[in-house]
Design brief:
- The chain has 353 residues and is of the alpha/beta class.
- The chain contains 13 helices and 14 strands.
- The protein has helices at residues 2-27, 49-53, 66-76, 88-99, 113-124, 190-202, 214-219, 221-230, 239-246, 250-258, 298-311, 316-330, 340-352; strands at residues 31-34, 38-44, 61-63, 82-86, 103-109, 128-133, 140-146, 152-157, 179-183, 206-210, 234-238, 263-267, 273-277, 280-284.
- Helix 6 (190-202) links the parallel strand 9 and strand 10 (206-210).
């Protein structure tokens, strides 16, 4: 009899733990991403000659037209390609979803192969797919060139993704979330970005902005300044983007950006990251990696880990360490997809931080 009572107590204890965990998950803040709904078509290069041929600056994101896309596709037809869901916000949201955060995504696709691929990938991870449909343009594609040193260069055909407009957005899309994550690639549509922020603020969300690419920052410097000074709560930038925005080196750039928003993060690649919130400044080392295979999604996954940490109520240092953990893993694979077994390993490592 005593044996059965002990077994029953263990079972009850197990279910109590599960119930506590379930309650914790349900109380976590939810994050919705706003971005270009893109599918990445990736190739690994033996040299950077094709970048010069296609007039794509190494390490940048360059918007291309349909003619340039066809030229790239002709080259890709002779090479081994890899297909994966992409887009800066899409990558970040997927990373958060894989960790167990409540997520959503707003974007625009066509009802075609790439659009359905993108939607299915979101739903597979439990992300609410708030995808609008374009009847005119095909879904967006990011042709992704991976250089021998792991650096990635994008030739991006936005297609349907670029037809997302201010009038497509509604207050209902943002209700139930605590954070809005915006990729900087969208800032060229000023009206749409301002409308999204207006609705998100009305719904009580904090605004997170990833600067996305140094050339976009240079082109839209005044608008980035307006957004960060007036609306954005959390800013993510790598050192090139931070310099394009402030004209300063990382530490000084961090100080400038942090005075404009609540939390500023400058990512330093292999040298880690620096974070500032008010007078608190933290430096976190990067996770050592033997070989960089592909830097696609490194910054996006850092943001995913950092924001996931915030939804859990972790310290800024732990948030940044989770970000470093994710970015260190994703640069060891092609594209921004990690296998399920790797996510289980990451979750265990997070619990031990």
């Amino acid at each position: 009899m005593l044996f059965f009572l002990k077994c029953a107590a263990k079972v009850i204890g197990y279910f109590e733990i599960c119930n506590i965990f379930a309650k914790k998950i349900s109380k976590m803040d939810k994050i919705i991403g706003l971005g270009n709904a893109l599918v990445d078509v990736l190739v690994t290069l033996e040299s950077d000659d094709i970048l010069n041929e296609m007039q794509l600056p190494k390490g940048s994101m360059t918007l291309i037209d349909e003619d340039k896309l066809q030229k790239i596709n002709a080259c890709f037809s002779q090479m081994k390609t890899h297909l994966a869901n992409g887009g800066s916000a899409g990558n970040a949201i997927r990373g958060m979803a894989c960790l167990g955060a409540g997520t959503g995504f707003i974007g625009k696709v066509n009802n075609d192969f790439y659009g359905n691929f993108f939607r299915d990938s979101l739903l597979e991870r439990g992300t609410e797919a708030k995808l609008l449909l374009s009847a005119t343009l095909p879904s967006g594609v990011a042709s992704t060139f991976i250089s021998p040193d792991g650096e990635r260069t994008f030739g991006t055909y936005l297609g349907a993704a670029a037809t997302l407009k201010a009038e497509d957005l509604s207050l209902e899309m943002f209700k139930g979330y605590a954070y809005l994550f915006i990729e900087g690639y969208l800032v060229q549509d000023h009206d749409m970005i301002l409308r999204a922020i207006e609705l998100a603020k009305e719904a009580g969300l904090q605004i997170c902005l990833d600067m996305a690419s140094y050339n976009i920052v240079e082109e839209e410097l005044d608008f980035f300044s307006l957004l960060i000074n007036k609306y954005v709560d959390i800013v993510f930038a790598n050192e090139e983007e931070a310099k394009a925005f402030t004209g300063k080196e990382p530490e000084e750039a961090l100080d400038i950006i942090a005075k404009m928003c609540s939390i500023a993060i400058v990512k330093l690649g292999a040298r880690g990251s620096i974070i500032r919130k008010g007078t608190e400044e933290i430096r976190v080392e990067a996770v050592p990696v033997e070989k960089v295979v592909d830097t696609t999604g490194a910054g996006d996954y850092f943001a995913a880990g950092f924001l996931y940490g915030l939804t859990c109520g972790y310290s800024l240092e732990k948030c940044a360490r989770i970000g470093s953990l994710l970015s260190g893993d994703v640069i060891q694979v092609i594209g921004a997809e990690l296998p399920e077994v790797q996510w289980e390993k990451i979750k265990k490592e997070i619990s031990e931080l």
